Amino acid sequence: MKPIFDRLPLMAKVALAPALVLLCLLIVALYGLSMSRETSRTLDFLTQQSLVHVALVAEAQESAVGTNAMVMKSVAYAGAGLKPAVIKALDEKIGGELKLTQQRIDRLREVLSGDVEAASRLTRLDAAFKKYTAAALDTLDMKDADLGTAAVMMSSAETAYGETRSLLGELFHHEVQLAERRGEHATASLRAGNAASVTLAAIALAIGLLVTWFIARQIVRPLQAAVGIARDVADGNLSLREVQAGRDETGQVLRALGEVSQRLNAMIANIRSGADQIDTAASEISIGNNDLATRTEQTASALQATSSSVADLANTIQLNAETATRANQLAADASLVAQQGGSDVAEVVKTMDAISVQAKRISEIIGTIDGIAFQTNILALNAAVEAARAGEQGRGFAVVASEVRSLAQRSGEAAKEIRGLIGASVEQVASGTSKVHAAGETMRRIVASIEQVSTMVAEISRATAEQADAIHGVNEAVSDMDKNTQQNAALVEQSAAAAESLRVQAAGLVQTISVFHVA
C-alpha cells in the first residue's frame, strides 16, 4: 500500500482525504435517503391505508348507528300515529342507509382481505348485519299491521344490532392498534436510521482524520528532510548523505536538494583545491619577485656608482683631448665627432641588444603571469557557472567567483598591456639598430675623408680621442643601463604587487570557502 501511495502525485495525495470523506458522506447520505424512503413508505402506508381503514370502519359504525336510530324512530312514529307519508319517507331512507352500510362493510372486506384477524371479524360482521337488516326490514313491514309484533321483532333486530355494533367496535379498535403499531415501527425505523447515520458520520470523520494524518505525515516528512538539507547547506555542511524519497513532488524536491548538495560538495572541493594551488603559486611568485626586486635595486645602486666614476674619468680625458686637438680644430673636431658617433652607434647597438634580451626575458615572465591569470579566469568562470546552477544557495559563491575572475582579467589585461609595450620597444630597438648601423657606415666614410686631410693630427690625438670616445660611450651605456635597470625595478615591483594581490585574493577565497565542510 505504501509504495503505491508514494508513487501518487502530490495533488492526488492531498485530494485523497477529502475524497474518502466525501465518499463516506455519500454513503451516509445514500443510507439516510434509503431510510427516509422507507420511513416515507411507512408513513404513506399509515396515511393511505391504516388511517383509511380506520375511517372506513368509523363510517360503517356511524352508518349502522344512524340506521338503527332511524328504525327505532320509524317504529316510534308508527306508534305515535304520525302521517303515513312521513313514515314511508323515513322507511325509504332507512332502506337506503341499510344498503349504504352493507356497501361499506363489503368495501371493508375488500380492503382488509389480507388481514386474517380483520377478515374473520368482517365475516361475522357481515352475517350479523345481514341478520340485523332482515330483522329491521321485517319490523318496518310489521309495524303498520301489528305494532306489538313489530315491537317484539324490534327486540330481535336490537340483538343483531348489538352484535353488529360490537363487531364494528372490535374492528375499529383492531385497526387503531394496527395503525399505532405501524406508527411506532416507523418511529423506531426513523430513530434507527438517525442513529446509523450519526454512527456512519462518526466513522467517516474518524477515517477522514486518520487518512488526513497519514497523508500529512507522508507529505511533511520529505519536506522536513528537505529543510534539514537546506539548513545544513546554509550552515556550510555539504557532507554527502543518502536521500530516500517518494516519487511525488515533495520527493522530487528532496532528491533535487540532495543533488544540489552533492554538486556543491564537488564544486567546493574543486574550488578549494584550485584556490590552494593558486595561493601556493602566488606565494612562490611573490617571493621570487621580491628577491628579483632586491637584486635589481642592488644592481641599480652599483650602476649609479659606476656611472659617477666613469663620468669623472670622461671629464678628465676630455680636457686632454681638447688640448691635443687645438692644432687642427676643425679636422680634429670633425674626426672626433665622427669617431665618437661611430663609437656611440656601436655602443648603442650593444645596449639595444642587451635591452632586447632583457625585454624578451620580461616578456617570458609576463607570459607566465598571463597564463596564471588565464587559468584563474577559467577556474573563476567554472565556479560562477556552478554557483549559477546552485541558484539562491550559490549566490555567495558567484560573488566570490566574480571577484576572482575580475582580478584574473585585470591581471591578464595588465600583462597583455606590458607585453604590448615591450613588443613595441623591441621593434623600436630593432629599427634604431638598423638606423644606427647606417649612421655608423656614414660616419666611417667621414672619418676616412678627414683622416686623409689630417693624418698627422689624427695620429697625435688618436689615442686621446679613442680614450675619450670609449669613456663617453661607456658613460652613456652605463646611464642607459641604469635607466633600464630602474625601469625593470619598477616593473618588478608592479609584478610583485600583482602577485601579492593575487596571493591575498587566493587566501581570501580559501578562507571564504573554508566554512564549507565537504565529505
Key traits:
519 residues, mainly alpha, Helix Hairpins, 2 domains, two-stranded parallel ribbon, 9 helices, 2 strands, 92% helix, 1% strand, rod-shaped
Structural overview:
The chain is an all-alpha fold. It has 2 domains: 2-228; 249-518, Helix Hairpins (Orthogonal Bundle), CATH 1.10.287. It contains 9 helices and 2 strands, in the order H-H-H-H-H-E-H-H-H-H-E. The protein has helices spanning 2-7, 10-80, 84-111, 116-143, 147-234, 249-324, 329-390, 395-453, 455-513, and strands at 237-238, 517-518. It has a two-stranded parallel sheet with strand order 1-2. Helix 2 packs antiparallel against helix 5 and helix 4 (116-143) runs antiparallel to helix 5. The longest helix has 88 residues, at 147-234. The radius of gyration is 68 Å and the shape is rod-shaped.
Could you outline the blueprint of secondary structure elements for this entry?
Blueprint (H helix, E strand, L loop, with lengths): L1 H6 L2 H71 L3 H28 L4 H28 L3 H88 L2 E2 L10 H76 L4 H62 L4 H59 L1 H59 L3 E2 L1
Parallel strand pairs: 1-2
Helix pairs in contact: 2-3, 2-4, 2-5, 3-4, 4-5, 5-6, 6-7, 6-9, 7-8, 7-9, 8-9
